[in-house]
Amino acid sequence: MRPGLTLFIDADDTLWENNIYFDSVIDRTATRLTEYGVSTERTREALLAIERQRTRAHGYGSLNFGASLEVLCEHVGIGESLDQLRPFLRAEIAALRRKRLELLPDVPDTLAYLRRRHRVVLFTKGNHDEQWDKVVRSGLRDLFHQVDVVREKDQAAYADAARRLGARPQHAWMIGNSPKSDIMPARAAGFGAVFVPHPGTWALELTDLPETHDPGIRQVERFGELRDMF
Fold first, then answer.
1. What was the pLDDT predicted at 1?
2. Is 202:179 a contact under the CB 8 Å cutoff?
3. Largest CA distance in the chain
4. What are 103's strand-pairing partners?
5. For residue 3, is pLDDT > 90?
6. Rounded to 5°, angle at Cα 66 from 39 and 94
7. What is the pLDDT of residues 146-166, one digit of tens each?
8. What is the pLDDT of residue 22?
9. Is 99 left (phi over 0), alpha (psi -120 to 50) or beta?
């Protein structure tokens, strides 16, 4: 594509590993709760339902995730044991927040290439301070013209980002691993969208992509393939 586009690029599970670490905490929590007679299946199903509700009200990130784990204990009927479990849960969240970021393959070189040809914006949702901390720790900050952290990535957020950043939707593309947050709402706002699938994408970020061909939605299997597209 010709130079001069605005490329909005997702962060978690597009540029670096993220959800696999949350899943590891869930695995260890589920194992711990079996000591109280709660099956791992019930733990996972209940937590997903709790997060679906709580993220609408409280947003995303490790702190809300930790709060959801405590709500989980109440929900599955072991609230009386929460004082015993709280040190374990809080230690898990503290370790999660200190986790070293693992960049996905080809990310730095590809971003450097894209930045020379286009305006590149990191567009991520979640807790503002936590997401900025990840950006700094990733070492990728200088590869973006701008970083924009929003509470939610829905159609209105994309339209607002285009207005605030002076991007024309017909000359903008969103790139990410989440059909729910990166592809469908960006397309609804008039952006093009590139789906970069990740096998560990959070269940709440999944939704069906259109069955009929849409030239405004494309897919690559690896981040590095974006160099051939843009």
1. 76
2. no
3. 61
4. 16
5. no
6. 115
7. 999 999 999 999 999 999 999
8. 97
9. beta
Which residues does 161 contact at the CB level (< 8 Å), separation at least 6?
Answer: 8, 121, 123, 148, 150, 167
Measured CA to CA, the distance from residue 185 to residue 196 in angstroms comes to 15
Residue 101 has pLDDT above 80, yes or no: yes
Residues 114 and 7 sit within 8 Å (Cβ to Cβ): yes
Residue in the structure block whose two tokens are 């929003």: 150
- The size of the chain, in residues, is 230
Could you report the per-residue pLDDT of 18-41, keeping only the tens digit for each?
A: 999 999 999 999 999 999 999 999
* CB-CB neighbours of 207 under 10 Å: 11
Tell me the CA distances in angstroms from 139 to 70, 142, 144, 166, 174, one per residue in order. Answer: 33, 8, 11, 26, 21
pTM: 0.94
Report the C-alpha gap between 220 and 175 in whole angstroms.
10
Query: Crossing angle for the helix pair 82-98 and 19-34, nearest 10 degrees?
Result: 160
